[in-house]
Amino acid sequence: MHPLSFFLTGLVILTGAQYEYYLMIKSTGIRPQLIPGFIISIAVYIIASLVASGLIGVKWFSLLLPLISIIMVLELYRRLEKPFDSLAHTFFPLFYTTLPLSLFPLAAFGRTGLDSLLPHSGMIFSPGLIIGFFILLWSNDTGAYLTGISFGRHRLMERISPKKSWEGFIGGAVIALAVAWFLSGWLGVVDRKKWMIISVIISIAGTYGDLVESMLKRSMGVKDSGSVMPGHGGFLDRFDSTLISFPLVYLFITLFG
């Protein structure tokens, strides 16, 4: 609706997803550094937002370097039996959740297209790419679900997700393509052909994103990452496809948009 609400929504998704990851890891007996991990994650997102909006320069990302060093030094004083496990799971969500979601502001600020509902001044901002991304992602998910239930016979990757089928994957991709064709003129940002390419990226990478999170949950023996969204599980369950697909969509837009 507005650059500020856009910023806060992304921050909520980011902290929710990272919190769920840390909770799942703690259930296995590993003790990641929660507070320092959150500080770095939030710092990355805030700096990315300020850089994208033009308020500060890229050099401010260098502030992250001492924070990373502090985390490694702090591990010396925790006296854990397996410090490597702690450090690995402290840093991994920074790549798994923080990096993909911190691309949101870089994809919205400085771009034109679909206007925000509430007026703003002083910066160029369009949520068109993000809104289009989620519309296509959820169209693909819905199409895959309905097609898979109706015609699914051949398992996509049964050892990870027994319910996913090739028929569902193809059905989801077709519906996402159709939605991209009809909505591209309204969304703007890029032309119709590029929106259709984006829908293909989302269908493939989004499916892998779902499978990656299923693999992680299976390794920890949990069904859902959380329970904040009844019927959907947690933040990671809802945005797992985003974490793999959006970086590739952002890369495509950056190179060819």
Name the features.
mainly alpha; 2 domains; 2 strands; 257 residues; flat; 9 helices; 68% helix; two-stranded antiparallel sheet
Report a brief summary of the structure:
The protein is mainly alpha-helical and about 260 residues long. Helices cover about 70% and strands about 5% of the residues.
Report on this structure.
The chain is mainly α. Helix content is 68%, strand content 3%. The chain is built from 9 helices and 2 strands, in the order H-H-H-H-H-H-E-E-H-H-H. The chain has helices at 3-26, 34-52, 64-74, 83-101, 103-108, 128-151, 166-187, 192-220, 235-256; strands at 155-157, 161-165. Strands 1-2 form a two-stranded antiparallel ribbon. A hairpin with a 3-residue loop joins strand 1 and strand 2 (161-165). Helix 1 packs antiparallel against helix 2 (34-52), helix 2 (34-52) runs antiparallel to helix 3 and helix 2 (34-52) packs parallel to helix 4 (83-101). The mean pLDDT is 89.
Structural class computed from helices and strand pairing: mainly alpha
Gyration radius (Cα, Å) is: 19 Å
Tell me, rounded to a whole number, the average pLDDT: 89
Oligomer: single chain
Give the helix tally.
9
Helical fraction equals: 55-70%
SSE blueprint and pairings:
Elements: H1 3-26, H2 34-52, H3 64-74, H4 83-101, H5 103-108, H6 128-151, E1 155-157, E2 161-165, H7 166-187, H8 192-220, H9 235-256
Antiparallel strand pairs: 1-2
Helix pairs in contact: 1-2, 1-4, 2-3, 2-4, 4-9, 6-7, 6-8, 7-8, 8-9
